[in-house]
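tool=predict chain=A
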Amino acid sequence: MYRGQTHLPSKNRNDLNSIRSLFPFLLQYRGRVIIALLALIAAKVAMVGAPVIFKGVIDALDATKNPSVFLPVALLLAYGALKIVSSLFNEIRDALFARVRHGSVRQMSTNVVEHMHKLSLRFHLDRKTGGITRDLDRGTHSVSSLLNYLVFSIIPTLVEVTLIAVILLANYNIWFAIVTFGTVILYIITTMIITEWRMKFRVTMNKMDSAANSQSVDALLNYETVKYFGNESLELRRYDETMHKWEDAAVKSQTSLSALNVGQSAIIAVGVTIIMVMAANGVVNGTMTLGDLVLVNAFMIQMFIPLNFLGIVYSQLKHALSDMDRMFKLLEEKPEIIDKPDAKELQVTKAVVEFDQVNFSYNADRAILKNISFTINSGEKVAVVGGSGAGKSTIARLLFRFYDVDNGSILIDQQNTATVTQASLRRAIGIVPQDTILFNDTVFYNIAYAKPGAELDEVIDAAKTANIHDFIESLPEKYNTLVGERGLKLSGGEKQRVAIARAILKNPMILVFDEATSSLDSQSEQSILVALKAMAVHHTTLVIAHRLSTIIDANKILVMDKGEICESGTHNELLKLGKHYAHMWRLQQEEKKVISEKQKLQSL
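tool=predict ok
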């Protein structure tokens, strides 16, 4: 298990916890929620009152009671008025709760995205983007569904059942209320038991759905690699195997739902039959009127139709809670790197960077950096070179505090980076990374990303310095050209120059070049080096380099091997030393000579 592993949330998170997690989002709309619930109750009182009024109409029209003309008309008008009132309050409830439902979804979505940005680099390196996006999509959608079910289905049905049971208990034989309550309770228990059993199929569906989405997104993001190796059939087979498991779970879920619906219908049919037999017997015996029979029948229809849907709603509610569970577990992930309670803003004046006895490991069983100590004075350029896996890029990540060091400290102007806010630290540093990933937006947006709100003239100046302005102007849409997902419409060198322009626009006091010219050809490299050199004059600069020719002018070169600094000095000093650096220089010069000879032969 790696050091600093993010907290794994409990697998036993129950539905009550998920519902409780929604309360903070609802509290900000407490006024609307209260009024909406009052409107809901008023609508149900009017709806339940309508059959009572209709009973009076039936009894008034009973020929054996010499009905008057006025009384039924008045009751019919009252019946119509109650129907209108019920509809009116339902619409008021819907209108008021719309802001609650959609506002809560917006806030929840924003919180999840914010939390994702707070999680550590370690988490994002381990994540499966497709699966997470699917979980978040289902989770936020389920918040809306849950609130919709509660306010428009479950609570109204429970209020209606309670009102009807009270009327039956107050006006008729107690057995009417007993049978009604008994039927409802048996219905709810049956629904809950079968639905809980069915949930395992839904969980499997969600798991396979996320896995399939991860596979498809991963394959599409690596479209070129798939094509290079002709593995379209492999990717399709992997995707189909996962979807086959999803299909099996989906079929079982639907089959079990059909069994649930049959059981629910049977319970309702038996309950209604018993109630109607009792009511009809009361009419025959003279203890109930024809209006009472109509009233009881209306109550049963009015109650059991929504109750029948309540079974489906409960099932959907459990599905929504299952979907929310994965999202809330994601929210329970703890950020590995957090600001200390007393963290202060980083104050950069001279921009002196110091690594003091820094030790670091991604995993406890493998040390990456061992006792790394060096200082970059104000305005100096220090380069770090070494073989692959020597720990060069890790130094840049630690400087940005994507990870905390195991031992030692990193200082900027004598301020420990672990004690300042992450935001202020990262504002002070600009980077040109080795692997430049661009947003699927315009060239202008990607350069201006370093300085939101930047004017076009500022972006153009940065692009000119990065030697990419002429290329941009040659594009049909110029700075409004879309670069494609991850910048795939641009070459590696073009993307790198966009990244350089972005760093130039940010104009921080500390610069990091992480193999910034690795994707450039020799001609472009030289023009960029001139720009970078001019840019670095008034900045403290850390250069992580592969091509040694790019760091000849560095004030100091650190040579790393197996996580340790094995040599340090200027270019000439290290060549005279005749060890690691000198060996690397000879190899690269020979490689450069071979490439040059090949180019000459090709030109002949």
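Confidence is low (pLDDT under 50) at residues 1-13. The beta strands are 353-360, 369-376, 381-386, 407-412, 415-416, 429-432, 510-514, 540-544, 556-561, 564-569.
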